[in-house]
User: Which sequence fits this backbone?
């Protein structure tokens, strides 16, 4: 009907390469999508097949025989760090090989590979994305893989990384170990010729669209007889240039895999290690999660390994649901990303840098300009932290956890990562008047960490313990003179912690008052370096009942404001029977202290007067307690 051969097979591509959605032929280690041509008596076939002559009366079957000569590949030099043994942050090198090639992949450079710190790790994946082999140390700390290819001609990918979380570099070469030396360039310089003896009416086909630099590596094809005894190796031939110009624009994916890409990966089941389940999302035209993406934020402790995935079988088996995700740290820096790890869905694994907890942002998008949807889950692959809970507390007038606070004590040794928080939405959301303030003190009484607002008006501390095993005290209070309440949890990783009953140190003889007491005198005391009555204190215990109004003072003129010519700046705290600070005082009689308090509640209880000095000064005193 006058159509060109290509017109008879318009937009007909035939069978695509295994694992590809946009290529049906390999030429010179590159994938191409080429339209088929019409072959009389055969139908639509690739140009590589169309040159086989039709032999009357029975046409010979058309068979594509791939080339078997492997051309050595030199991968680009790489440098990597924290690749988790080539499972993240790695470099990639792709190449094509057919069945039966004895691959040798090696970097045994003497300058890089002696025993030292350049500890390489490599993994080899076939065209379906399955890992076929890996290697750690074969040339001292450098890596070597020997592998014989199987199956069809396909694109292999070498993941180039480092052992564990170390840093390394390298430059791998890939050769055919069964060949003593690679083919010489001279043997590959002649352009192929096509000689067709029969029938005489068929034209000679010349590949016009294939780069000449690639044609130099293709063997010569000659059809010697109309009844060949063996099918020749055929040359990929492009369709006419006029038809190629009409091919539709197809967004193709890079032949270099994205970091952390394992096409056969599946999410690890971790039970209760779930950090966050992101809300379902739908997006379009995100330019691979760079615009129009949907954010999901979560927090993770330093040093843990997290996995982010959406490997739903229904969503991910659909080739049109092509997800793309990017992970940003708390500074907004991209730390890793992933395209296809569960078919067309995404999965990535990332090790959070050691240190304090930080907030991450997951940018959920789609590959290129496509439309997609998903529900991502963030889990921890590291062991769950040990968690203890402090009793619920209420407080007021704590002056930012320096007075009237509620203590919660626990023991921990060096190197334990602590996260102390009360971020309950019912207490901590904006609009709730519950302004907490907490301080963490070590065994010496020094504050090692503090927090005011970390979860809206609630508090959170991240701290790594140091020094010897010791007792720490969490001082639970409120900002300034406000009232507040909460329940703090202490999560520990890297070691264990033990909840302790709050004990009083440096006890003094305990005078006991009757319920109708009129006066009691605590023994004379002398101390120093008490850090405002938080350490090295002297205690005086007594009992009191509801309705008693206590007047606690030491306003002796011989001690206040000076004692033997030296400033005498007292500081006292009053604790109830559960060790809650119910009152404090610094200067009520010059530099001496006094407290007035009416006992509330329904039962009698034992109180403790904690006697110390302002700051780390030295002081003396002899307090009296009367029922006003």
Assistant:
């Amino acid at each position: 009907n006058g159509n060109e051969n290509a017109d008879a097979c318009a937009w007909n591509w035939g069978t695509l390469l295994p694992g590809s959605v946009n290529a049906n032929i390999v030429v010179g280690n590159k994938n191409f999508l080429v339209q088929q041509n019409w072959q009389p008596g055969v139908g639509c076939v690739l140009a590589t097949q169309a040159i086989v002559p039709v032999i009357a009366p029975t046409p010979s079957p058309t068979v594509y025989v791939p080339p078997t000569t492997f051309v050595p590949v030199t991968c680009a030099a790489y440098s990597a760090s924290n690749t988790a043994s080539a499972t993240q942050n790695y470099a990639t090198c792709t190449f094509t090989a057919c069945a039966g090639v004895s691959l040798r992949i090696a970097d045994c450079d003497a300058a890089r590979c002696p025993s030292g710190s350049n500890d390489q790790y490599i993994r080899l994946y076939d065209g379906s994305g399955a890992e076929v082999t890996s290697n750690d140390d074969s040339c001292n700390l450098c890596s070597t893989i020997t592998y014989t290819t199987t199956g069809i001609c396909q694109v292999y990918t070498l993941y180039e990384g480092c052992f564990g979380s170390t840093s390394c570099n390298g430059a791998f070469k890939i050769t055919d170990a069964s060949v003593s030396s690679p083919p010489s360039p001279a043997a590959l310089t002649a352009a192929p010729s096509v000689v067709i003896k029969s029938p005489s009416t068929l034209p000679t086909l010349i590949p016009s669209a294939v780069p000449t630099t690639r044609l130099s590596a293709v063997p010569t094809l000659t059809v010697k007889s109309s009844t060949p005894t063996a099918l020749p190796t055929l040359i990929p031939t492009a369709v006419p240039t006029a038809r190629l110009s009409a091919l539709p624009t197809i967004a193709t994916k890079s032949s270099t895999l994205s970091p952390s890409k394992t096409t056969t990966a599946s999410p690890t089941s971790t039970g209760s290690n779930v950090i966050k389940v992101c809300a379902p999302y739908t997006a379009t035209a995100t330019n691979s999660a760079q615009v129009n993406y949907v954010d999901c934020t979560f927090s993770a402790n330093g040093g843990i390994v997290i996995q982010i995935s959406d490997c739903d079988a229904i969503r991910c088996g659909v080739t049109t649901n092509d997800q793309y995700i990017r992970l940003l740290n708390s500074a907004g820096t991209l730390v890793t990303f992933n395209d296809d790890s569960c078919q067309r869905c995404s999965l990535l694994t990332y090790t959070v840098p050691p240190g304090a907890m930080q907030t991450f942002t997951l940018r959920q998008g789609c590959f290129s300009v496509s439309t997609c949807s998903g529900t991502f889950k963030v889990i921890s692959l590291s062991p769950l932290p040990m968690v203890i809970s402090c009793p619920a507390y209420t407080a007021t007038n704590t002056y930012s956890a320096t007075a009237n606070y509620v203590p919660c004590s626990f023991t921990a040794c060096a190197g334990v990562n602590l996260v102390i928080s009360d971020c309950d939405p019912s207490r901590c959301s904006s609009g709730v008047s519950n302004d907490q303030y907490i301080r963490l003190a070590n065994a010496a009484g020094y504050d090692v960490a503090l927090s005011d607002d970390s979860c809206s008006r609630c508090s959170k501390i991240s701290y790594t313990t140091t020094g010897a095993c010791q007792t720490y005290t969490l001082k639970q209070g409120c900002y300034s003179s406000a009232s507040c309440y909460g329940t703090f949890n202490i999560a520990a990783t890297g070691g264990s912690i033990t909840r302790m009953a709050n004990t009083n140190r440096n006890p003094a003889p305990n005078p006991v008052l009757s319920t109708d007491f009129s006066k009691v005198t605590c023994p004379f005391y002398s101390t120093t370096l008490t850090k405002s009555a938080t350490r090295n204190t002297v205690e005086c215990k007594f009992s009191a009942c509801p309705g008693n109004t206590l007047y606690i003072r030491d306003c002796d003129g011989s001690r206040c404001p000076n004692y033997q010519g030296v400033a005498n700046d007292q500081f006292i705290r009053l604790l109830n029977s559960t060790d809650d600070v119910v009152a404090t005082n610094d200067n009520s009689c010059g530099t001496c202290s006094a407290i007035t308090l009416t006992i509330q509640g329904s039962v009698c209880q034992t109180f403790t007067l904690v006697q110390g000095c302002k700051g780390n000064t030295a002081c003396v005193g002899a307090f009296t307690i009367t029922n006003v």
